[in-house]
Design brief:
The complex is a heterodimer. Chain A is globular, with a radius of gyration of 17 Å. Chain A is an alpha/beta fold. Chain B contains 15 helices and twelve strands. The chains are: A alpha/beta, B alpha/beta. Chains A and B meet through α5 of A and α10 of B.
């Protein structure tokens, strides 16, 4: 397995238990997984861990992180994750967020960009680009699961999961991720109306990576998102949907490592 | 035992069901003919007026964006019946307080209907079934909390008679709450609540003197819930004083053949289709249930019922049908199996069951069955002394 040192633990941050995995050493990277929560398994993490301290942190409600009852939107999650970065003493980490985790990362960056060195958003949600009748973000809850799979994946077969070998604890994490995704993204649907008016505050090098065939938030949305962040660059991954890191891990790894160095 | 007439006010004139992917949430409204709808509304209200004449009570509910129920605003139907009937009680089961923006508006509507009906209103509150989440756009992970916050606020608004108060809750913020009118009944109408599995919720309802109602469940499950209710029962002295209510499909007829024909027509309700995403929105049920769902062992209550034969459903007390004496026998059997109950909520109309057949069943029930079950003792605490 990995050559890098690997520590998974629960860190108590101002009373909230946060699920954190740390790999490797070097300049830090703080990585916020997607709602699927599968990013820790990516080969690129171990590659990065050869020269970086990679901190994979699950926001409240995801992974094994607690979800205090008062938390209702990604704004709350962003503050908890900023507290975590402070508590771990991470010095100017690069911040990487995927999908819903990308929204949390964007909320963190607008609050305190100066504490990060770089920002990477991967098929992130969180902003509303068009008007009230425009579908900027496909509704993942009101449509048939087969349609949702086609929105999410270039190859909808990738949506299939085999849970037969899973323990109840593992299934509880899967089920609670689904639940928390709804808790924090239900309304306004997958966006904070104020975020787009705050993204100008992100004054660090930012790279936006997008699955070419993302049907949840199209590359057009991705480009508009990037356009709200001063100087942000945009890169597309071919033959990938909403989760390019999972669908095209090699091409994604190249894009990520090139930017992070 | 109190008997109630109920119909969901369905719109059954649909294309063949196997050509539809859903009857709920996303069924296009071009399939609704307003002229047919007008006839149906008036017919269903006529049936409630007949119930009143026959000495039955009237039960109403509401759903949204569905052909299974066009009674989208139960307070409107209740207001009509408050004015057009004179004897029976009227119960809305219930107000979807978790799905409505302003609980105070509900408090006002109920107070007004209670006054117009001169105190014949019972007020139910429901969390709302899973597919209601979509029309209301309520966060599905918070509906239980919203339900109870709403009930607390409505109760406080009804019973605060000496001027305004402010409320700063989790879901509702209001200032200068000062209800005009207040309800006809003092301190307020009886409160009903529904449930199907959450025992804590049931006990909470019991401890507050609310009537607890459950629908279309196998008798063992009903007993489990009613026992839970009785274990926490305290009569708080509210009008109605709490109690238990059960809803089966009920059809009474002059012959066995007619009875079965009517019962089979009622099962239309159990066959209502909806797309899978509407049945279990994220966070509507606890994580433990969704772990079971991931294993493929939890599919929901209605699904479980839909697959069963009419004989099984009759044995379970989910459907009651037959000639009057047979119907009375089945009700008494169910009463004994579940440890007694106070309110028989009869879904006496569903699907294509026509006006004539509905009327005949209601009339036979009222004249020949009701006298046989009316005097069954009301719900008592499991441990009478502990509850005194």
């Amino acid at each position: 397995m990995s050559v890098a040192e690997r520590t998974a633990s629960i860190v108590n941050v101002h009373g909230i238990d946060i699920d954190v995995e740390i790999r490797g050493s070097g300049s830090p990277i703080l990585l916020i997984p997607s709602e699927e929560g599968l990013e820790a398994q990516l080969p690129v993490i171990d590659e990065l861990a050869k020269t970086h301290k990679v901190v994979i942190a699950f926001p409240p409600g995801f992974g094994r992180s607690a979800r205090p009852d008062w938390m209702t939107n990604p704004d709350d999650l962003a503050y908890a994750m900023l507290d975590l970065a402070d508590q771990l003493g991470l010095e100017s980490p690069a911040l990487v967020g995927f999908s819903f985790g990308g929204w949390v990362a964007a909320e963190m960056a607008v609050k305190n960009a100066s504490s990060f060195s770089k920002l990477v958003l991967v098929d992130a949600v969180g902003v509303k680009i068009g008007g009230p009748f425009d579908v900027d973000i496909q509704d993942l809850w009101v449509q048939h699961p087969a349609k949702v799979a086609a929105f999410k994946w270039a190859d909808p077969e990738k949506a299939k999961r085999d849970y037969s070998g899973c323990t109840d604890e593992e299934l509880s994490i899967v089920a609670r991720n689904v639940e928390s995704f709804a808790r924090f993204g239900w309304e306004p649907y997958m966006h904070n109306p104020k975020l787009k008016h705050r993204l100008h505050r992100v004054c660090i090098p930012t790279h936006v990576i997008w699955g070419e065939k993302d049907g949840v938030v199209t590359h057009k949305y991705g480009r508009a998102y990037a356009g709200l962040i001063p100087g942000a660059t945009f890169e597309m991954i071919a033959n990938a949907g909403h989760y390019p890191q999972l669908e095209q891990p090699e091409a994604f790894a190249k894009a990520l490592t090139t930017f992070l160095g | 035992m109190q008997a109630w007439h109920f119909t969901e006010m369905p719109y059954p004139d649909l294309p063949p069901l196997d050509t539809l992917s859903t009857m709920r949430v996303s069924i296009p409204s071009k399939l609704y003919d307003p002229k047919i709808g007008a006839e149906l509304y008036n017919r269903y209200l006529d049936e409630h007026m007949l119930a009143d004449e026959l000495g039955l009570n009237m039960l109403l509910n509401e759903h949204h964006q569905t052909a299974t129920c066009i009674n989208t605003c139960a307070p409107l139907s209740a207001a009509i019946l408050a004015r057009q009937t004179s004897k029976g009680r009227i119960c809305i089961l219930g107000n979807p307080v978790a799905n409505r923006a302003d609980p105070i508006r509900i408090a006002e509507e109920m107070a007004m209907i209670d006054c117009i009906s001169r105190g014949r209103l019972d007020v139910g509150f429901v969390r709302g079934v899973p597919y209601e989440i979509f029309a209301a756009n309520t966060n599905p992970t918070q509906t239980v909390e919203r339900l109870w916050e709403g009930i607390d606020l409505v109760s406080k608004a009804w019973t605060t008679t000496d001027g305004p108060f402010n409320f700063e809750g989790k879901f509702t913020h209001k200032r200068a709450i000062n209800l005009w009118p207040r309800p006809y009944q003092t301190p307020h109408p009886a409160i009903w609540i529904t449930g199907s599995s959450d025992l804590e919720n049931i006990k909470r309802a019991a401890s507050r003197g609310f009537v607890f109602a459950t629908f279309l469940q196998p008798h063992e499950k009903v007993k489990w819930m009613f026992d839970g209710y009785r274990s926490a029962y305290r009569d708080t002295g509210l009008p109605g004083g709490g109690g238990t209510a059960y809803m089966p499909l009920v059809y009474t007829a002059d012959s066995d053949e007619e009875a079965e024909k009517g019962a089979r027509a009622l099962t239309w309700y159990l066959d209502a289709k909806s797309e899978p995403q509407y049945r279990n929105p994220p966070g509507y049920v606890p994580v433990e249930y969704n772990v079971q769902a991931l294993k493929g062992t939890f599919t929901g209550r209605t699904d479980a019922m839909r697959k069963q034969s009419i004989e099984y459903l009759r044995d379970q007390g989910v459907i009651i049908y037959g000639k009057p004496d047979d119907v009375a026998k089945q009700i008494k059997r169910l009463y004994d199996l579940v440890g007694g109950f106070d309110h028989l909520l009869m879904m006496g109309q569903a699907g294509h069951l026509n006006h004539e057949m509905t009327k005949r069943s209601m009339t036979l029930f009222a004249k020949e069955v009701y006298p046989q079950v009316k005097d069954l003792a009301r719900t008592r605490p499991l441990q009478a002394q502990a509850a005194e």
